[in-house]
Amino acid sequence: MAAATTLATLFIASTATAGYAGVEEVTTAPTPVEGTPGHYIVVMKSDPLASYTGDVNGLKATKPAEGEQLETQSDDSQRYVQHLETEQKSLAQEVGVTPDTTYQVVLNGFSAQLSGEQVDKLRASKDVYGVYPDFVRHPDAQTSTDFLGLGDDRKGRGGVWQQTGGVDKAGEGVVVGVIDTGIAPEHPSFAGKKLKKQKKDNNRHKGSQPYTDGSFVYFDKSDGGRFQAAMVEGQEWDRSDYSSKLIGAQYFYSGAEAAEFDFQYDYLSPRDGDGHGSHTASTAAGNFGVEAGIEDVDFGRISGVAPAAKISAYKACYVGPDVTVTTDDICAGSDLIAAIDQAVADGVDVINYSIGGGAATTVLAPEDIAFFNAAAAGVFVATSAGNDGPDPVTADHASPWYTTVAASTVPTWEGTVQFDGFAQAGASVSVPFGESVTGPSVYAGDAAAAGQLAADAALCLPGSLDPAKVAGHIVVCDRGGNARAEKSQVVKDAGGIGVVLVNVPGGADSLDNDFHAVPTVHLSSVHRAAVLAYVQGGVDRPITLVGENTTGVTTPVPQIAGFSSRGPMLADGSDIMKPDIAAPGVAILAATHNAPGEAPTFGILSGTSMASPHIAGLAALYLGERPNAKPAEIKSAMMTTAYDTVNADGTKNTDPFQQGAGQVDARRYFSPGLLYLNDVADWTAYLEGKGLADFPGDPIDGSDLNVASFSIGSLASAQTVTRTVTATEKGTFTASVDLPGVAVTVQPSTLKFDRPGQTATYTVTFDNQSAPVEQWATGSLTWTSKTNTVRSPIAVFPVTADAPAEASGTGVDGSTVVEITPGVDGDLALGLSGLTPFTLLDDPDGRVVGHSGDEASGDENKDVAWIVEVPEGTTLSRFDLDSSDDAGSDLDLTVYRIVSPDDQRYYESWQSASGSADEQVTIAAPTAGTYLVVANVYATSAPMTWDMTYANVQPEGEGAFTATPNPIAAVRGEKTSYELSWTGLEAGTRYLGVVQYGDSAVRTVVTVDAP
Known about the structure:
There is one protein chain. The chain is α+β, with helices and mostly antiparallel strands. It is 15% helix and 33% strand. It is built from 17 helices and 59 strands. The strands form 15 sheets. It has a seven-stranded parallel β-sheet, sandwiched between helices. A seven-stranded mixed β-sheet has the order 21-20-26-22-23-24-25, with helices on both faces. The two termini are 31 Å apart.
């Protein structure tokens, strides 16, 4: 593929695409195992509006200038959008496709139902760089605003709201876009004035009220830009549902429809049928001082984080029949991208994205590419980290251009479980405050109904309990297996009068304020053994449930929730730390959904979904004060002013893979002291350095991206990283580092700033001294002045050795010396595999003897394909595409692992498609099986030949391949060397081998040419 020059091209060039063809010997466009036909997202070559730089004759650049946001409604933008629409229409007509959604703002492309033949044609098109099977995501499901220091619940005084002009000014002039399950327009959290109707005013007036011309809502924002969004109608929704608060609401469903989702349990409109979207929207930007109550319990007043901000809802998620789970809900990827695209097109300033899909596997998923361009347009994006904790490597949303949020606890409603010698507090809103319930106790596992398993009864599953044993009792139920609130209903149905809900060790350990059918207190797993020992140690032993914490011990907060997904982030390496920050996400009281004409409702929900909108709201507050701040500035200000969360025993929690930079501190983030700024050029250099894209400009090591954290995924010897900071105040800052086992040198260690806006660059050198290898060492770096502290989390991964990725030698008999720097002391064993000869894949047409092809080779798309078997035990496979004309040709290479020679659907794929003549794909520890190799003769300028070769390295090989010495007497940090030798190779053959260092993943690939 030719050297790429546009953002869309550069991203997709390194990403495998889905294709389809019938099995006729060897196909050049296999289908993924997931199967086609189906619903796809098609991404085209040209830049979307947000990153277009003006390379089309007659069309000016639309990418926003430094410090500005994207102007989606300008004449230049509209002309370029029309240009993209024309290109999309032409492509769709060419292949006979009817798009159901088109994208122009953050992606250039469309989604559509495609046949296998259409997928094949689109993949082969020179205008297309990615054809992605559609995917499914799910919502990640004292008041938190008071806890954050924003202000008191009655008048909003005594905190950040007051400092920014009061609750009527908090987030003023800013629009928060919420991509979720929709919104409840009647809810008091979203109440506003009726929109004034008038003609569109082409002049802009900061501080004016939103208005409508009957088709669109217009709002002139504090940054000088304009929000403009279409008014839509749908099921139980009309134009009267918009107001001066809720100025935008749209819905997207073509992807869900293509997946044959049953919409009968939801609304085909922006109306929220689930509650999740209303909850996140009201958390981020709901009105101030809304009286909240649930089931006749008065919880006082609640507020959104940015109560003066406007809200625009984008519904892309729909609820299924079971309200207790999210697995039957749907958020189709194509609908989510359509929502992102529309939100940026409308002119939102902030996006909240409380949507997840499990542990991230790449920084360039379709949403990531869309959010890249959203951030390039100046939009701050907050995303949820996921609810798959407490296991490591579970966090979602890996990219550095948005903010990934972990969930933490806040002071919440508690009850107490009391019995002889025991009193422990847990979560409870169902035991009336100040009252108590006392009764005989029984463990549910000892009260199984006839024919029911004790294990099912222990979980209080429906129908599992014996009323004769439960009636009149307080029942101890284990968490898990069914919804928490359902357990209390099962107990009530069996005649029980109360529940002690206990978490089970090894399972989820969050404490949740559910509304239960009988008085219930939810306890941590650490108390389960004591509770069961008491209850099972006798018959009908009494237990008392109290509607408040009577223990005299204050529950430590903020703690990271057990469900909150953790790092490290292994997607595309480990040089970006995630999550970025923590925010309240446990037992958050906010708005939920209601049907038309019904009373508004509130709910107490937990999840990183609830944490993310706190960060989105804080971003809106920041933009209300500093309208032209870029996303990276806001993210840096939050991270460097955060503080440590706590463990269950009240001690500091310094684990960055749980908390990121720590708990967000709304009282400090307006005065961060120093800022770590980054933008599009930094992100592209990072991606190029990772080998994920081919950008103009110089690549950087992933650890050198100018973010407010430090992460090094492989540290064997001293490594130096660079950061540049921008001062927000005058002063002198001095560095200090806490990173046990690792020597850290900061140069210079003092930074002096004479004025705000001044920049300084410093380096940090990390050199492992005693930290264990093959595991993470974590800590922090802090810059301290007389008035401020600026802290960044650190995570480095000391490895067994720093060794060259490649080594080479020549000769039928020969040797080569390899230099390494051990990361350990003592004997370091070298594990050798190979040598294995490369095999030439012959020209399938038999026309180019002794080579794989020439300038005339290939089908109509210039593709040539072969089947290759990779045997069991292969240490490493390499596929080399080598042109005889390095200056005048451009070849591309794609390798697929397919089902079989007769079933050429693929499980996974690898691609090397730079602008150079030669390409290479290397697969470490490949899965044994059948592989499809496809070479593409993209461009040639003269007669030439090319060779496609491969080698599957086995533990045993040819040439008596040895290393001397082996093992190496290693001294950590001191360079040493060893000699590789071989003998008796076949002349005229190229060989491949591998050296592995100890039991680590560090390896050196060895190539030997025997002339």
